[in-house]
Amino acid sequence: MRIIKARGDNRVHEARGLLRMILGLAFCLMAPQLALAQDSGASLFEFVPKPVKPPTTVASRQRAELPNVNPRAISSVGVVRTITLEEAQQAASGQNPMVRLGQLQVEVAKQNRQVFEASYYPQISSTFLNMHFNKFMGEEIQLRRPLQGVTNTLGFPLLGKDSTLAAFTLVQPLTPLLKVQQAVKIARADKNIAKAKVGIPISASLRNVEKNYFDLLIAQRELIAAQVKSQRVQDKSLLASNGPSIPLSSEQQAEMISTEKLLLVARSKVRELAASLNEMIGLPEDTELELIPPATDFKTVSLPEATQKALESNPEVIEAEQTAIKARAGRRLAKLDYVPDVAVVGGYAYQANTLPLLPRDFSFIGVMATFSIFDGGKREHTVKQRNAQVEIPS
């Protein structure tokens, strides 16, 4: 009887061992489906069907080449917005109001420069006059003839009673062109300063977007790592217990709580960074983003080249250089006030009974020069002021 009972116990132990092995294999096979069920908010032991494989696209191939990238593990939303760093920076630049303000300032400086450049060309003007006078516009002389007893009146008109005049005048400045040249230099320097300043908000916006972009990219990778670690801990607990009814040990519970805490922190960080980036690029706050890591580009730059490029692109350095150019141009402009303004003048006029003593139509050409003999020392003080501005260190 004892031998029979021992054999029966051995069979029971063998059956239990075989059952445990079958349960262990079943949990191993169901582990991926259990992970998907947990990520989607379903019950731990609820069956989740295998997702349908999406069609292959360029974006999906790029995502497949990235290590440890699983957008569905990051977001439970089906629609994911794929965006690159360049697209994010362009969108942020369009949303920045300071960029638009800087562009308007550049346009103002550009139009100001073109105003001065227009003085290089001849200035053509036209005049039209049509007037009616109620009196005789001239001098009347009375001639008396005593023998005949007759008095005659002769008129010498200066202007016709009905006068019409049409004239076209052309003026080409000569010496004032030197002043125009210095004024154009000043206006061009103002434009360069405006262009340098408009790059400040653009650069700041690009830096902020780039920092937020890479912070979110890193946070998404950390979330994936936290999800993988949490899944491994759960799989380990299931295999160790061989069933859901057996309670976990204190070490296992502490490990699961720690991994869940890391997972919650990672999800919160991803959600916060995604909301910040969406605000920068003008997307809704809850838009799910799938970021494409930019391609690595290596360039060899020496220290002198890097220093030179930094100085050339520094807005403060550009403003200092252009301010010095403006000061030197202003000094030359002040000295040119001592030069007479000489211009060539020409035109054509047609008059009908306006000036009776002149031909009906005529043309003219000549030279006109003006010079201020005394101005109370204005030119002298202006030159001294411009000299002091040139000596101011930039």
Could you tell me how far the N terminus lies from the C terminus, measured between alpha carbons in angstroms?
111 Å
Q: Strand count, sense and closure of the main sheet?
A: 4 strands, antiparallel
The total beta strand count reads 8
Task: Using the alpha-carbon principal axes, give the shape.
Answer: elongated
Bin the strand percentage.
15-25%
Order of helices and strands: HHHEHHEEEEHHEHHEEH
Task: Pick out the low-confidence regions.
Answer: 1-7, 31-78
Describe what you observe in this structure:
Among the domains are: 47 residues; 141 residues, no CATH class. The N terminus is likely disordered. By secondary structure, it is α+β, with helices and mostly antiparallel strands. Helix 1 packs antiparallel against helix 6, helix 6 packs antiparallel against helix 7 and helix 6 packs antiparallel against helix 9. The strands form three sheets. Strands 2-5-7-8 form a four-stranded antiparallel beta sheet, with no helix packed on it. A two-stranded parallel ribbon has the order 1-6. A two-stranded antiparallel ribbon has the order 3-4.
Question: Any key phrases for this structure?
Answer:
394 residues; alpha+beta; four-stranded antiparallel sheet; two-stranded parallel sheet; 10 helices; elongated
